[in-house]
Design brief:
By secondary structure, the protein is of the alpha+beta class. The chain folds into 2 domains: 165 residues, Aminopeptidase, CATH 3.40.630.30; 131 residues, Gcn5-related N-acetyltransferase (GNAT) (Aminopeptidase, 3-Layer(aba) Sandwich), CATH 3.40.630.30. Helices cover 37% and strands 26% of the residues. It is built from 11 helices and 17 strands. The strands form 2 sheets. Strands 8-7-16-10-15-14-13-12-11 form a 9-stranded mixed beta sheet, sandwiched between helices. Strands 1, 2, 3, 4, 5, 6, 9 and 17 form an 8-stranded mixed beta sheet that branches. Strand 7 and strand 8 form a beta hairpin. The protein starts with 12 loop residues before the first strand and ends in a 10-residue tail after the last helix.
Length: 376
């Protein structure tokens, strides 16, 4: 907990009602993420969540925002309780030990006040970088130590990807290409020779992207949400100036697509889809290269491939995805992951252990595989 002499002891969260003020606050704070944006919060509020954009300020006559948390609240059916989730947040200077402890304390109080079973956070804090020569993050270790000491626990339900692959964009296009694996460079050139063309997309392309995404899900064996969910989310991000679709075409027919999300100095490859046809022309390789080029042209410093295996083993569900992404020579980033604060420990155990086991038994009896809902 914050000590009595903490400069933040009087700071509390307040509900922010101005989209402009919210975005301005995120623009000034480190560790901000697209999933903490006003547009994402409003989108989720149309799909079963209540968005609570909370800011914390400090200062006498001139108040300065020192932390922000887009808290998503969902009520538990037929019970007077809820669950709270702060996707890729909260947002603050995590190097400030007193501040991060104060923010955690305020979130714990919020969970009690809102009658939450638990509150979940998954801040954009690295645990380590690299794969073969892994470098541990001292900040990640300090944050996880604080969480454990305060009674938070690693969550069994991660929601977002625990690991990702990041590509720094400071180098020239020639240097980026030269650093890729030879096979990846070859496939990019092959796609160009085979007539694959990549163009920027817009809202008129979203229905096609949904069809392609559903085709991808059927081929790769994951469950997707209703089409309206993606149409709504992509449009919300597009209208906020954050989303850019890119479409790979062969002879005028879309065969692959990505939806890129730009926030601050980062571009995220958040959604990708492809058809079964023309795969021998390697459209996804050229598509990713054009996405990287677009990110660099926008002034981004990092291209985030958005997702890597939990365990870098061939049995991991993302192994095939990882092999593709690895060819672009990005760096593996392991995050500290999602953490839960059980505001009501007994209900928390029921909600996170007993009920999921019961549902698994029902699925097994019906012969249905467990649903896998993609992050985001």
């Amino acid at each position: 907990m914050a000590t009595d002499n903490s400069p933040y002891r009087a700071s509390t969260f307040k509900l922010e009602d101005s989209p402009a003020a919210w975005q301005a606050a995120l623009g000034r704070l480190p560790y901000a993420h697209a999933l903490q944006s006003w547009a994402w919060g409003q989108f989720k509020s149309r799909w079963g969540w209540e968005a609570l954009p909370l800011t914390m300020s400090v200062g006498g006559n001139s108040w300065e925002t020192i932390a922000a948390a887009m808290v998503l609240k969902r009520r538990v059916p037929r019970l007077p309780f809820c669950v709270l989730y702060v996707p890729k947040g909260p947002v603050l200077d995590y190097h400030d030990k007193a501040l991060r402890r104060q923010v955690l304390a305020r979130l714990e109080q919020l969970a009690q006040r809102e009658r939450a079973i638990f509150i979940k956070i998954d801040p954009e804090i690295a645990r380590s970088w690299g794969l073969e020569n892994e470098r541990v993050s001292p900040l990640g270790m300090a944050v996880t130590r604080d969480l454990r000491e305060r009674g938070w626990r690693p969550s069994d339900e991660q929601i977002q990807f625990r690991n990702t692959v990041e590509l720094p964009l400071e180098a020239s296009e020639e240097a980026l290409l030269a650093a890729m694996k030879q096979k990846t460079r070859y496939n990019i050139r092959l796609a160009e020779r085979k007539g694959v063309v990549v163009r920027p997309g817009g809202p008129a392309d979203f229905p096609t992207l949904v069809d392609m995404y559903q085709e991808t899900a059927a081929r790769d064996g994951f469950t997707v949400r209703p089409a309206a969910y993606y149409l709504d989310g992509w449009m919300a991000l597009y209208e906020a100036g954050m989303a850019q679709p890119l479409i790979a075409e062969v002879e005028g027919r879309p065969v692959a697509a990505v939806v890129l999300v730009r926030f601050g100095e980062r571009v995220i490859y958040m959604y990708g889809a492809s058809r079964n046809e023309a795969r021998e022309r390697m459209p996804n390789h050229l598509l990713q290269w054009e996405a990287i080029r677009w990110a660099q042209a926008q002034g981004a410093k990092v291209y985030d491939f958005w997702g890597a295996p939990d365990e870098f083993e061939e049995t991991d569900r993302l192994w095939g995805v990882w092999r593709f992404k690895a060819g672009f020579n990005g760096e593996v980033v392991r995050f500290i992951g999602a953490w839960d604060f059980p505001a009501r420990p007994l209900l928390y155990r029921l909600y996170t252990q007993a009920i999921p086991r019961y549902l698994e038994i029902l699925r097994a009896r019906r012969g249905r595989p467990a649903a896998q809902d993609l992050p985001g």
